[in-house]
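Lab meeting minutes (informal)
Scribe: AK
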Amino acid sequence: SAFSEVPAPPPKEKYFSDCPAKVHLVTSCDSRSQTHLLLLPELPLRNKIIDDLIEASKTYDGLQVDWELVSPEDDENFIEFLKILKSKLGEKTLSIAIPARIRTLSKDAYNYEKLAKVADKIIIMAYDEHWATSKPGPIASTDWCKKISDYAKSQIPPEKLVMGLSFYGRAWRDDTLGGKAYIYPTLQKIMEENKVKNHRRDEYGVPSFTITKKLNITAFYDDETSLFVRTKMYAENEIKALSFWRIGQEDEAYWKHLKIKETEENK
């Protein structure tokens, strides 16, 4: 929470009593500065949040850390944080969801090799190749995902590696005028470019103008076919496990292409 507290978790016995699968609790922190403070070993926040997370996941089969705003400068503190979590979880699974990489960075809190020495499972979020403010393009093209999985295989043991697939799309508009703040000279330029002849004034003299434009919207998304192609690539690349963000958003026809393979781990 905003006060660095773990909210009461959804009771596993209430929502998952009939679920035969293992159910893990997920923790997230959506502030870079708050993440930094929670990871500092000299502050009492770190030990408190660790104890709270252990308590919150007590009835679950494991804990997943999905902290996506860890600064590179906090790399060692993040590793230490995860080590303490793992030691207190004991035999339960500690998994981490981390961003896509195609090479090792000189300074990175999400160093694949280092994290793989601590966590039981590493989930690579192989999506957002294109994002809200980028140019239009696939959420996760198969060629891009192949590069990520090739790199991940070189850093993470196969039994720990999980590749993430996206179950969402994104749309871009070709007009970027709306929803922004502008300085006066820029507004004058916009008026000139769009041949605005007159502007209105309200009773207090505040001017305004309206531009009418034709708009194109481009959307990229995944369906049964694209998901199957990417899944087939992962299978051919000897990836043993997949994750999805998130179930409930997908083209349901995709599931007919998958079958759970029984292993000693998931019996």
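Next up, CB showed the second protein from the same session:
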Amino acid sequence: MLTLHAADLVVLGGGRPAVPDGAVLVDGRTLAAAGPYAVLAAAHPAARTRRWPGLLTPGLVHPRGPEVLEHTYHPDPREAGELGTAPLTGEALAGLGMTEARWGASARRGVQRLLAHGVVAVAGPLRRPAVVDAVQRAGLGVRPPAEDPGDAAGPDPLAGRSLARVTAPPPAVGEGPATFAVFDVPDEAALTARGAATCVATVLAGRLVHRRR
């Protein structure tokens, strides 16, 4: 099935100009085309359209994958009364008596938090088998360690970092996987200022894995 993902502004990087009122055409797992929405819609009248507010851009790479998934516990909502809802690290984590199964469940919840921030890959290496399994099942990519990962290890890769440092490589139009994110902001400057919590949609290889609205 062909799907047009339309947004107020489409930025695919790689030296390509931004496209106001643009769209990307997804054919299964592949990013088949990108350009003005009106042009793509006319060329592919059978394609369904998903219209998003704001900025469509390559997804983000979290530079501290091990810290956010292997050194942080993401509580189950059923544990909120005992542990709260915020991720736990340090002494709070050390007192939990973590098992491999519990690490896997935590990683699955952590991955969902990352997807909700437009993250499509994490910088590794990841060593816990249960965490690796959770990341692979979700379809997140794993990249080499970041040269300058910064200090913040929360789910927002933009916390204290520039957009250029955490943007994934541009997708290859016509042959590469349809992997991107959409943020409810007018442009890249606003995304840097407001952070990745503005994410409204994340797509991994053609699959809509997160949507806020």
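CB comment: The chain has eight helices and eleven strands.
No objections, moving on.
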